[in-house]
TrEMBL record:
Keywords: Cell membrane, Membrane, Transmembrane, Transmembrane helix, Transport. This is DHA2 family efflux MFS transporter permease subunit. It comes from Planococcus salinus. One of its GO terms (molecular function) is transmembrane transporter activity. It is found in: Cell membrane. The chain crosses the membrane at residues 17-43, 55-75, 82-102, 108-132, 144-163, 169-190, 202-221, 227-249, 269-295, 301-323, 335-356, 368-386, 407-426, 438-460. GO terms for cellular component: plasma membrane. InterPro entries: EmrB-like, MFS, MFS_dom, MFS_trans_sf.
């Protein structure tokens, strides 16, 4: 069993360890978004239609979402090194399968293998960050982590758009393979065991319920954008997911060693921070989906140009994440969240008045300011929530936080796309402005949601009370 001394930064250098972890997370998240603008090329090459091709992104998200809740168990069962090396090996193997896939079925198999590794890396890395950094430096550490998870998905569509215009789509996987293998090699030499092994027992029925619950909701929500919320497949999938999730949650409270510990929500600031992170994540993912659709289908921009529009916002967010992390360590999360979500709310409403002549510059600047607001909220609010948890609940808190983001991102995107399509006016009567009306309404909904987040931000305490950091300690003896 790993002792606590290395966890406090003694006996190993943090620099190489952090570099290995962030490289793994970066390449995993980058891979998740690389296919966005490459789907038309894959469709043409493999002779598949749009609905079939969409599974390449949907199945990755589904498997990712299913793996995340299991990660808290895996962190307790296996050592840090063994778990990360296994996760990165799975990701690298899946990438190789995708690059060499002769047809669509093998390509899907490769994406499933990739996602099974990627789904472990995010909560594992987040847990390691919280273990090796003392509470007064976690904001700075999570700011660094935020730089990676915000920059990777934003440059993905732009990079992908350029690559597929110059090279075959398989190049998207070939450029990831050496990065994954190199990170695997460096991890073997530099990664240390820092998490504690508690050797929990695996409740197989919980895994089944978790898979049906989160998988059903994710599939239903991601399919709603194309099939419609009223379709039988969407209703059945979401209903199955909700029922399974109810039984899953009830079972976790009955088990001595739950697969996913829902008692983390008994910590008020963690529960509030989870709601706020869901709100800002929906806003961020929604705009990254809606704006490219508006630019390409209603404004005449290319896929590369729409990706390029998102890039300055990604750079701003990447630069600001470490800065807001330091500010968080100094003053806490409350005013960062209030100011950040206020920026998100104002700029979201600015996107609620788009026209067919809105300039590229306006879109780029407003999106960049919006991402500045997101950077002030995303990592600080996550850190504030997990800081409330005792050490033995941190893996569960990290897994829960990532699970909620994955589910909310799927549901939120589907919801905003549905608002966009159902509120669009007849293009035969109103022209392209009728379609843009739907886009404006979707941003209006996102703006109201962000506004609610501003109000909730006032309830975040400046710093976690000292008693909250010490009070849960006896829970280890239960």
């Amino acid at each position: 069993m790993t002792n606590t001394e290395p966890a406090m930064g003694q006996g190993f250098k943090k620099g190489p360890l952090l570099a290995v972890l962030m490289a793994g997370v970066f390449v995993a998240i980058l891979n998740q978004t690389l296919l966005a603008t490459a789907l038309p090329h894959i469709m043409a090459d493999l002779e598949i239609n749009e609905n079939t091709a969409q599974w390449l992104t949907t199945v990755f998200m589904l498997v990712n979402g299913v793996m995340i809740p299991v990660t808290a168990f895996l962190i307790g069962k296996f050592s840090t090194r063994a778990l990360f090396l296994t996760a990165m090996s799975l990701f690298a193997a899946g990438t190789i399968v995708c690059a060499l896939a002769p047809g669509f079925p093998v390509l899907i198999l490769g994406r499933i293998i990739q996602a099974s590794g990627a789904g472990i890396m995010m909560p594992l890395t987040q847990t390691i960050f919280f273990v090796i950094f003392p509470i007064e430096k976690r904001g700075q550490a999570m700011g660094l982590f935020g730089l990676v998870i915000s920059f990777a998905p934003a440059i993905g569509p732009t990079l992908s758009g350029w690559i597929v215009e110059q090279y075959p789509w398989r190049a998207l996987f070939y450029i990831v393979i050496p990065i994954a293998i190199l990170d695997l090699i460096f991890a073997y030499f530099f990664l240390k065991n820092v998490t504690k092994q508690t050797f929990p027992k695996l409740d197989v029925f919980s895994v089944i319920l978790s898979t049906l619950g989160f998988g059903g909701i994710l599939y239903g929500a991601s399919s709603a954008g194309s099939m419609g919320w009223g379709s039988t497949a969407v209703i059945v999938s979401i209903a199955l997911g909700v029922v399974s999730l109810v039984f899953f949650i009830r079972r976790q409270f009955q088990l001595k060693e739950p697969l996913l510990e829902f008692k983390v929500f008994k910590y008020g600031i963690f529960a509030l921070s989870t709601v706020l992170s869901v709100i800002v994540f929906i806003s961020m993912i929604g705009s990254a989906t809606i704006l490219p659709i508006y630019m390409q289908n209603m404004h005449g921009f290319t896929a590369f140009e729409s990706g390029l529009m998102l890039l300055p916002g990604a750079i701003v967010m990447g630069i600001m994440n470490p800065v807001t992390g330091r500010v968080f360590d100094a003053i806490g999360a409350r005013w960062l969240v209030i100011v950040g979500l206020s920026l998100v709310t104002v700029t979201t409403f600015q996107f609620a008045f788009l026209t067919a002549t809105t300039s590229f510059t306006y879109l780029t600047v407003m999106h960049a300011i919006r991402m500045l607001g997101v950077s002030m909220v995303m990592m600080p609010v996550t850190t504030a929530g997990i800081n409330q948890l005792p050490e033995h609940l941190i893996p569960h808190g990290a897994a829960m936080s990532n699970t909620m983001r994955q589910v909310s991102g799927s549901i939120g995107t589907a919801l905003l796309v549905t608002v966009m399509t159902t509120t669009a006016l007849n293009p035969e009567q109103y022209g392209v402005e009728g379609l843009i009306h739907g886009v404006n309404m979707s941003f209006m909904v996102a703006g109201v949601l962000s506004g609610i987040g501003v109000v909730l931000g006032f309830f975040i305490k400046r710093k976690p009370p000292a008693e909250n950091q010490q009070e849960p300690a006896p829970a280890d003896n239960k």
